[in-house]
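Anyone have tokens for OmpR/PhoB-type domain-containing protein? Sequence:
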Amino acid sequence: MRIGILLSGGRVGCVEILVLGPLTVRQGGRDVVVRAAKARAVLAYLVVHRAELVTPEALGAEVWPGGPPASAANTLQTYVSQLRRLLEPDRRPGDRPRVLRTVPGGYLLDLPPDQLDSRRFEEAVRRGRAALEAQEHDKAADLLHAALGWWRGAAYGNVPGDTAAREAARLEQCQLVATELRIDADLALGRHAELVAELDGLVLANPWREEWVAQLMLALYRSGRQADALGAYRAARTRLVEELGVEPGPRLHRLEQRILRQDPDLEIGGAPPASPRSPVTRPEARPAAPAPGARRRPWRWIAAAAVLPIGVAAGLGAGDRAVPEAPPVGGTFAEFDVAVRPGLGYDLDIPAGRPSDWHATNNPRSPDYDHLDLYRTSPDAPHDQISGVDLTNTDAFNAVHAVNPGDPPQVCRGLSRRGGGNVRLAGLAAGAEVCLRTHAGRWALLTVIRMPESRQAVLPLHVTVLDD
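Reply: yep, here.
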């Protein structure tokens, strides 16, 4: 985050706050440590809520989650004063702060979006994705390599507090997506041989992320290793079937078939690189909702992120890319899988083809909070449970009912539209089903794919949202 500071003689100095790694303040190329962990938590909270009013009460709740001490107000003022000296080292005594300002009701970090390194990262990824979609592969690769090079470790790696942890999880999902996009660009530029080892490691570390399996298969095939490419598919299928009880997704299966028949479009130059592929003019039809007891469609990782993958754009035809799909017949509005993180809410009333956690947030002041339907409690809460988000406090939309495993989604329609409260995870198991009334007045059937290993782990759910 670059903060312009007027120096004597009219020169503009540069102070950066780096969050893509341990929280660091950099003054003129020199790193300055914020020594107190609680002061780092204050700065991180202000950065996450840049350009918003932050009340002393909100800061106190973040810094002292167990309850603020009697000296909290004075201690917070001390932290703010220290941070102001750090952010504006050349501010003269008596001059008003221009970066961390006092405003009616609290504090405000007054920074344009491009003065935060995480925002610069997200903007570079957005531009890289646009360049990739426009077949400008050199530009995309340059942007994405540079953006990923700004990471120095785990985001907010030295900051305590729930806010920093949630923002770090979001940024790290963006990093995963940026890596996928960067590999797409590198594949399009013929760098397949040098990508194989990296992709082997990514698949090993993220065994359920089918995007990297597809990229590994393509890199191996283009390197003249057809048998190894097919072996990567078989290994992924074995993992999915044995550990999750699901088959690979249709796009991964189609790639296997194209490798088997040695589709020339999989090679570099198989399609004109300078012109975009023909757009998809109609979505593929989706099957009807599965019958009770039938195997559900494969698991997909969908997590809170600002940018989303576009598929292996360098080697797969337009028909293989992720496109919005028509809702299945039989009264289903949308159907998808979602990785539910502790302490976050999720939007279930979305069209098919949109990520379910497009509005994932835990900030009641966020405009996206109005869209939430499903909430999973924080690991710090007494019980780990899921509930509906009732924005009106009228108990009109947060009905939650556990039903029998294997019940069809239509069972939800016969349940009470009020009450039900919440459902504790302690009473659930893989295959368990829960009906939830969404804020838009629809019913959603939530099916547990597998239980989380710990209260900090994600809860994988299959979601079927019924039409009104």
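The chain has a mean pLDDT of 79.
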